[in-house]
């Protein structure tokens, strides 16, 4: 697994290689983990393979330029990124509370990158090396390439290219654009002349572009007019296609932001070559004494086999970053990576995941896309599958079979999430059978997100009936295979379109099915997504219809509490929510109620199953009229309280729609779930 050493991280490392100078400085807000799941090392290894001398400066002190200056001035440029996450998402929860941990930093230590890292790092590079070309990229730059609503400032901000003062911005995965920038700078072109590179954005004084273009509402217009903001969002998403997409121009003050069309996605041979680069696949040893970098644990024995996602979820940034066109690595490349894993000293025989943005996508969603691109005005899967959808898992099945056959591999899991609607769209059950039989670790994670169709439409998710059909099919398959495995549904509260009444209906839906989520994802208005546009404008950018938006912290808290109605700590909030929703009929005793009422002389305990116990009402040992003796009642209460903390899921949380923690859940999670399969007692 050792690829021959890390990229230089200091002048001493450069000297050890015999370098007196170097070409490109890469700066990242993450710790340096030399693994293909981390964007900056991918760009570094790719540039290295083309003959460039590259050094990495990870999480430098941004308070002054000394740390950057100590690396020495590079010959060509500096390319910088906030890291694998937007720095504000990395630092703050959906409630705008500061996070206490950062899994992309040594020892999970928070605060090692600045807020708005792209802006902060660019300023320090300008100070350290005046006149050096600065190119910003990565997720933060990609999602903030246009004028955008910023949840933390609660206002519309300029493109991050304008606010940072960088020379160029790369968006998307960045390999093609980064190579072309480096090649042309080395050839002697000035950075101001690099205005015609796909997958980049630049600023120009004149209204001009090398590509066919469309002008969208200016920064000043989208700042003042929410309808103009929604119109701009619609065009930004429609034109994000490497085949048919046009460049977009957006005026900022007296300059024009020129966002060129997306770069073409890497094809199979290119993805294979990228995976074969000499990554060490480990955190840099300088972090060993600091506790290592925890993010490696999720990916060390996982394999990314694809890129792109045509799922089209409105709250997800994937489509606006990687794009909707799916490409994948060859079987030979994936098998070679798995075989190398078996030689790792820590490998125990388990491949934790064979996935990507969506695990069960291996090819474009339809045959027309290679020539015509993706449809600008419809989703491939929602609200129902397109008639042209090519739902075929045969290639993925063949790949998983090859991985299972590798000597030293005991089990191959699929944990990065599957699209259950895509599974149902295939007429054959071969994939579901193999998935259920070989690749589920007791629980299969899926993301229905909600159960109300009007809310699902705003999310860009399939209708509730599709999830119900999958549940039945999955349950039947488990029964046929003699297995007892459960579904773990990911759920989201407070998404635009979700009223308090909708949250009540979702709570009833979950209770009816015996689902008790311990973790609920609040909607997080991250930059660049369609759902964030809805949150800010109150409009659906595709229809311009008004959308209800839960905005206040209190309403968000009430919606989240309803999804955890069984938790005694949430009882007061659940009562308040039911009263505000005028659903007092759900307050009481019995299986058709959500929560018991407050009682004079003592608070009723209720854990979601229609039973309650009273604290402080009678002396221990005295029976309640018509009920159990108090001693038995106390034992029942203790049992119910234990049951209340049983949950679906892994009990961990992280930034929205980033890769989730996927280690096996505690035993309590396995004892809850949908009905057991046919023939099970």
Low-confidence stretches: 604-681
Named CATH topology of the domain at 11-197: Rossmann fold
First-last Cα distance = 46 Å
Rough outline: globular
Q: Tell me roughly what share of residues is in helical segments.
A: 25-40%
Main sheet summary: 9 strands, mixed
Layout of SSEs?
Layout: H1 11-16, E1 24-28, H2 39-49, E2 54-58, H3 66-69, E3 77-81, H4 87-91, H5 117-128, E4 134-137, H6 138-143, E5 148-150, E6 155-157, H7 160-164, E7 168-170, H8 175-186, E8 200-204, E9 213-215, H9 219-224, H10 226-238, E10 247-252, E11 255-259, H11 268-275, H12 296-299, E12 302-304, E13 306-307, H13 318-321, E14 327-328, H14 331-341, E15 350-351, E16 353-355, H15 369-372, H16 394-404, E17 411-412, H17 420-425, H18 430-438, E18 443-449, H19 453-459, H20 464-481, E19 486-493, H21 500-512, E20 521-522, H22 530-537, H23 553-562, H24 571-580, E21 604-606, E22 612-614, H25 630-644, H26 667-670
Parallel strand pairs: 1-2, 1-3, 3-4, 4-7, 9-10, 12-16, 15-17, 18-19, 19-20
Antiparallel strand pairs: 5-6, 7-8, 8-11, 10-11, 13-14, 21-22
Offer a concise description of the structure:
The protein is 33% helix and 12% strand.
Structure description:
This protein is an alpha/beta fold and 681 residues long. Among the domains are: 187 residues, Cobalamin-binding domain (Rossmann fold); 139 residues, Transcription Regulator spoIIAA, CATH 3.30.750.210. 33% of the residues lie in helices and 12% in strands. It contains 26 helices and 22 strands. The strands form 7 sheets. It has a 9-stranded mixed beta sheet with strand order 2-1-3-4-7-8-11-10-9, sandwiched between helices. Strands 18-19-20 form a 3-stranded parallel beta sheet. Strands 5-6 form a two-stranded antiparallel ribbon. A hairpin with a 5-residue loop joins strand 21 and strand 22. The longest helix has 18 residues. It is globular. It starts with 10 loop residues before the first helix and ends in an 11-residue tail after the last helix. The C terminus is likely disordered.
